[in-house]
Design goal:
Blueprint lengths: L1 H17 L6 H8 L3 H13 L5 E4 L4 E4 L13 H14 L8 H12 L10 H7 L12 H13 L1 E9 L4 E15 L2 E8 L4 E6 L3 E10 L8 H6 L11 E7 L1 H7 L9 E4 L5 E7 L2 H9 L5 E5 L1 H19 L6
Antiparallel strand pairs: 1-2, 3-4, 3-7, 4-5, 5-6, 8-10, 8-11, 9-10
Helix pairs in contact: 2-3, 4-5, 4-7, 10-11
Length: 328
């Protein structure tokens, strides 16, 4: 599956360069969970095989394109092969030994066919030599992903029956799909929602039925996925972004500093081994859930409203466990 993994890394490197993030081998190695040597090999592949106009900016400490108009070469796929790509490395492992194994093999073969050297891909070896564990994800119909991809490319509106979990409401919505985003195995659709007259994020697993409509739409030329996601936390965007400040103790800090949690983050190291994490987002509800998962090892310093919400929630937990359980 090495060719498949490299393709996904190349796409991420290209995305970060176009977003003006000036990635380098060290930052990419942490984000992609590979060695710096692997990232340098990907860089060489971009230069030698894809003829990318890649250069290093010493002042910014990362890579950029000397020709911003350069684009990655296209890879032609059938619908079955596109389905295999959607499954990705994390999702495709569930389908080894099933009917989806054939299109997965075809997708890997087509992707690796563009490489000059031969690449051998053995799914049987993957099955016998490796075990992958995944976090629970909401099931998504593969046909939905294919239809959404077509609607995005052809700029067609989509009518769908959607369940909003936060309000426990089911509604029929008409949307103009902009982008598909995968977070830890879950698929999200970023689209202009006619009901709200604004861009919204929809969990693909909460779409009960859908229809790609024949009418086209004009995509907002000012919309940027990078800008949209930079104001979100995980997949929740919320209202106007505010500065979030969280202090982690020395125990938790050793794990927090390993990852990049947000595009705008800044880390301040503390003398006691802890750290303070700062970033800007409007997705405060998701930040609250994230912070509380660390228990006493994380403290919200700002904004005050978020600190109060966490304190209230923590008090409710104490009351729950401090009282007498109805089941005991």
């Amino acid at each position: 599956m090495s060719g498949r993994q490299q393709l996904e890394r190349i796409l991420e490197i290209d995305r970060q360069i176009r977003a003006g993030k000036y990635p380098n081998a060290r930052s990419l190695a942490v984000e992609l969970e590979v060695s710096e040597r692997t990232v340098y090999q990907d860089r060489q592949f971009l230069l030698d095989r894809l003829r990318a106009p890649l250069a290093y900016d010493r002042r910014r400490g990362g890579w950029y394109y000397t020709d911003p108009t350069w684009a990655l070469p296209a890879v032609l796929m059938t619908e079955g092969e596109l389905l295999a790509f959607f499954l990705s490395v994390e999702v495709a492992r569930r389908y080894l030994g099933t009917a989806f194994e054939a299109p997965l093999r075809a997708a890997v073969a087509k992707i690796t066919a563009g490489l000059k050297e031969k690449v051998t891909v053995s799914l049987e070896e993957l099955r016998t030599c490796y075990t992958f564990a995944t976090s629970p994800v909401v099931a998504v119909k593969e046909e939905l992903l294919l239809d959404l991809d077509r609607a995005i490319r052809e700029r067609r509106r989509v009518k769908m029956h959607y369940y909003t979990a936060s309000r426990d409401v089911q509604q029929t919505r008409v949307v103009e799909p902009y982008h598909l985003y995968n977070l830890r195995g879950d698929w999200y659709l970023i689209a202009f929602d006619h009901l709200r007259q604004a861009v919204r994020t929809f969990h693909a697993g909460r779409v009960a039925w859908w229809e790609v409509l024949p009418d086209h739409f004009e995509r907002d030329s000012g919309f940027s996925v990078e800008t949209w996601m930079a104001q979100a936390f995980q997949m929740e965007r919320g209202e106007e972004p505010v500065e979030v400040v969280i202090r982690f103790d020395a125990y938790q800090a050793r794990y927090i500093r390993e990852r990049r949690w947000h595009a705008t983050q800044e880390v301040e190291e503390l003398p006691d081994g802890g750290l303070i994490l700062r970033f800007r987002t409007g997705g405060l509800a998701e930040v609250k859930r994230w912070v509380m998962s660390y228990g006493p090892h994380a403290e919200v310093l700002a904004p005050e409203s978020l600190r109060d919400e966490v304190a209230t929630e923590a008090g409710a937990v104490v009351a729950l466990y401090g009282g007498t359980s109805s089941g005991r």
